[in-house]
Automatic annotation (TrEMBL), chain A:
<feature type="transmembrane region" description="Helical">
    <location>
        <begin position="69"/>
        <end position="88"/>
    </location>
</feature>
<keyword id="KW-0472">Membrane</keyword>
<keyword id="KW-1133">Transmembrane helix</keyword>
<protein>
    <submittedName>
        <fullName>Uncharacterized protein</fullName>
    </submittedName>
</protein>
<keyword id="KW-0812">Transmembrane</keyword>
UniProtKB/TrEMBL annotation, chain B:
<keyword id="KW-0805">Transcription regulation</keyword>
<dbReference type="InterPro" id="IPR013324">
    <property type="entry name" value="RNA_pol_sigma_r3/r4-like"/>
</dbReference>
<keyword id="KW-0804">Transcription</keyword>
<dbReference type="InterPro" id="IPR013325">
    <property type="entry name" value="RNA_pol_sigma_r2"/>
</dbReference>
<keyword id="KW-0731">Sigma factor</keyword>
<dbReference type="InterPro" id="IPR013249">
    <property type="entry name" value="RNA_pol_sigma70_r4_t2"/>
</dbReference>
<dbReference type="InterPro" id="IPR014284">
    <property type="entry name" value="RNA_pol_sigma-70_dom"/>
</dbReference>
<dbReference type="Pfam" id="PF04542">
    <property type="entry name" value="Sigma70_r2"/>
</dbReference>
<protein>
    <submittedName>
        <fullName>Sigma-70 family RNA polymerase sigma factor</fullName>
    </submittedName>
</protein>
């Protein structure tokens, strides 16, 4: 390639007035070599640009697949917890009521027992009354 | 959209995103973080992705904005992070080798350019985006892109010649 043309292209390149095609031509010239000694000073620029474009991003991107079902799970968990608490409380209440019932029954049974014993004694009173009536009637 | 479909969609340009991020943030680690951030943002917008004319252009604009925000918040904060203090074990050897030759010089020179010039140079000369695409990506007028690009190229040339003259960078 004629030096003259390259010189022109270089000038346009640094003034940033070259077209994309012209810049590509210039890049090709430096990429393919050999480069005229006069142009060697610019060579590092072009070879760096093409080198720099080879750097890669090698890390993995941790994509969270946070689907919508996630929200439902928390709602469901809350519901289960509430139901559990509700029925748990109910069962506990029932058990407490049962115990209270048993206690009351025991207490009432005790009263009834004592009452029975009382009425037994009262039976003697009845006897006394009868005897008293008999005595009074005999008068 | 499944993760594999998404990866298929972003694979053609995820390296470009990373390289632009690295050009702006300079540190490899920060560029990796930025790339991941951009990818995750795209992923979370995956349902709207179909309505964008070009997902790649959208991603690149996002990367630019994200990185510029990063740089701004770093400058405004009291904590000044100096990139040269970062040690990057994986790249240190490569950098050492690279820095000795003139390719490393060009990288160093580019790192010192103003952000706007760095971006234009990256998009035009490294990624080979067309002028029109660059105008859209950076939200610049055509003449502004050309002027910035010309300044950037001339700055690289001048400093490169300077380094050549003194031998060591």
């Amino acid at each position: 390639m004629e030096l003259d043309k390259i010189n022109q292209l270089l000038e346009k390149y640094f003034e940033a007035t070259a077209t994309e095609a012209e810049e590509r031509e210039l890049r090709d010239y430096f990429a393919k070599g050999p480069v005229a000694p006069y142009h060697e000073a610019y060579a590092p620029m072009f070879s760096y640009f093409s080198e720099a474009g080879k750097e890669r991003y090698t890390k993995q991107v941790p994509l969270k697949t946070r689907s919508r079902s996630y929200g439902w799970v928390s709602i469901a968990a809350a519901a289960v917890l509430m139901i559990g608490l509700y029925f748990g409380k109910q069962a506990r209440d029932q058990r407490e009521a049962e115990i209270a019932y048993q206690e009351t029954r025991k207490a009432l049974g005790l009263i009834a027992q004592n009452l029975d014993r009382g009425t037994e004694k009262v039976a003697y009173l009845g006897q006394f009354e009868q005897t008293k009536k008999k005595l009074l009637n005999n008068d | 959209m499944t993760p594999s479909e998404f990866m298929e969609l972003v694979t053609p340009f995820k390296d470009k995103v990373f390289r632009l991020a690295k050009r702006l943030l300079i540190s490899t680690e920060e560029a990796e973080d930025a790339t991941q951030e951009v990818m995750l943002k795209l992923w979370s917008a995956k349902n709207k992705i179909g309505s964008y004319r070009s997902v790649e252009a959208f991603a690149m604009t996002m990367t630019r904005n994200f990185c510029l925000d990063r740089l701004k918040s770093k400058q405004s904060g009291n904590l000044k992070l100096v990139h040269s203090n970062y040690s990057d074990p994986s790249a240190s050897l490569q950098k050492e080798v690279e820095a000795k030759d003139s390719l490393g010089w060009v990288r160093q020179i580019m790192d010192e350019l103003p952000e706007q010039q760095r971006m234009v140079l990256q998009l035009r000369d490294v990624e080979d985006y067309e002028f029109e695409e660059i105008e859209a990506l950076l939200d610049m007028k055509p003449t502004a892109v050309r002027v910035t690009l010309s300044r950037a190229r001339k700055a690289v040339r001048e400093k490169l010649i300077e380094k050549h003259r003194y031998g060591i960078g």
